[in-house]
Amino acid sequence: MSDLKEIPAEVEAWIGQERYPLESEFDVERAYIFNSCASTENGNPLFWDEKVADETTDGFIAPPSMISVWFRPHFWTPYRTEEGKPMQTHFDLKDALDLPEAIMTDNTIVFGVPVRIGDRLRTHQVINYISDPKTTKLGHGRFWEIEIVYTNQKDELVGKELYTGFGYRRDA
Amino acid sequence: MATTESITLEQIKPGQDLPDLSMDIDVTNVVLGALASRDWRPMHHDKDFAVDRNGTRHIFVNTPHNAAYFEKYITDWTGPKGRLGRIKFRMKDSVFPGDTMVFRGSVEEVRTDEQGCGWADVKIDLLVGDAVTTSCTASVAIPTSSDDNPWKRTGNDWQP
Q1: Which residues contact A83 (CB under 8 A, 6 or more apart)?
Q2: Rounded average pLDDT over B23-52
Q3: How large is the average pLDDT for residues B90-99?
Q4: Is B160's CB within 8 Å of A75's CB?
């Protein structure tokens, strides 16, 4: 089993910091909502029927579970020279801790005000903890928890996500 | 014609089962879910990458797609006035093309919070065969009567 490197002081300092404040690259739009609903056969009339949406949610909203979708970067743009990664903190931890593989294990989402068509959302990321070395069936590595906070253009909280990641080496 | 017909809190009891939902997964489902969630990572569309780099047997359903399936399962049961407040899931294994997913849920608790919002706390297992691949708990706001609508709650009246 390979030894893991110690957590560098620079990485320790990241814990609790607000990192990567970001505004989404595009407004919330219905086309992606249709794609998401089609991918799960979600026929909830909130997303398909204008009368139901008007009566129930004062207009069309996005499925709450789509909250992270609005921040995933375009696969390519003419303005970016490096690959866009949706949860940069997760990839920073992989690189800084020299753990080439990583998966997400737990995901908790708490929902605030609904996300509406035309919203332009903002987000930032916080590392809550990095674990001591652990061994799982995948390999030897560390768990970490990343909190992602989402707000809308009115600074209202639209949601908060907690991700538990496991970065590892497969040579355990 | 779609309606706003939804379950109400008095119709729910702890221990009550949600109806099972069975869905067959193929390559198109996995890729559609990944692209709908703007997840371009190759393990969700490139089988060689998934096998060689991730050590999995095929491409697999990604996390936001998983969340979207749980939302669909819950709101198919509640109707459109059901409003998700909180959802947590743990992925123990992945879902691959060729798998049949079965969602099996039950009500753990029925409660009303200090703001008068009705809640059902549910536990859901996502099974492939006999194995639970993902376990989920969720709190969903439920109308306390046919006139109530949790989506109208704002500010301090919404405490998920």
Answers
A1: none
A2: 95
A3: 93
A4: no
3-state SS, B30-78, equals HHHHHHHCCCCCHHHCCHHHHHHCCCCCCCCCCHHHHHHHHHHHHHHHH
Q: How many CA atoms lie within 13 A of B68 on its CB side?
A: 32
Q: Is A42 on the interface with B (CB under 8 A)?
A: yes
Residue A1 scores a pLDDT above 60: no
- List, in order of start, the domains of chain B with CATH numbers: 9-157 (3.10.129.10)
pLDDT at B154: 95
> For A86-96, what is each residue's pLDDT tens digit?
688 999 999 99
User: In whole angstroms, how large is the CA radius of gyration of chain A?
Assistant: 19
Residue A51 is classified by DSSP as H
> Closest by alpha carbon to B133, among B104, B100, B92?
B92
CATH 3.10.129.10 given to domain A9-169: yes
Residue B83 has pLDDT above 70, yes or no: yes
CA-based R_g, chain B, Å: 17
CB pair distance less than 8 Å for A114 and B151: yes
Nearest to A69 among B37, B87, B89 (CB): B37
Contact A52 B80 (CB under 8 A): yes
Q: Are A111 and B75 in contact (CB under 8 A)?
A: no
On whether any CB of chain B is under 8 Å from the CB of A41, the answer is: yes
State chain B's mean pLDDT as an integer.
Answer: 95
* Positive or negative torsion for Cα A171, B66, B120, A155: positive
* Structure tokens that stand for A109 in this block: 């989402």
For residue A68, the chain B residues in CB contact (below 8 A) are: 37, 64
Q: Per-residue pLDDT tens for A126-139?
A: 999 999 999 998 89
Rounded to whole angstroms, the Cα distance separating B99 from B30 reads 11
Expressed in percent and rounded to 5, the helix, strand and coil fractions of chain A are 25, 30, 45
Which helix (DSSP H) or strand (DSSP E) does residue A34 occupy?
helix A30-40
